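#onboarding

Welcome to the new folks! Below is a worked example of what a typical request in this channel looks like: someone posts a single protein sequence, and someone else replies with the predicted structure as tokens. Don't worry about understanding the tokens yet, we'll cover that in week two.

Example request:
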Amino acid sequence: MILNDYTMEDKRKYNGGNKNAGRKPKAEEVALIEKLTPLEPLAFAALEKGLEKGDFKFTQLFYNYYAGKPRETKDVTLTTEQPIFNLEDLGDI
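Example response:
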């Protein structure tokens, strides 16, 4: 298709995307782990102090990582049936 002496072409190649999208490279992950590793004993000590004090947030954090977060469930109770649409509003089709 020709429009104003320019040919229409697929413009997707001009989108560019988002440079921050997607998973970080493994090298960045490894570098972050190496940077944080010396702080691990300090973090465990702080967690231990919080647990000894009986602070709920520390206990919650510990069990979220130790046993995994519990599965969230929602109880849905339908008391009456509601139609999605009203047939009388459709008229003659």
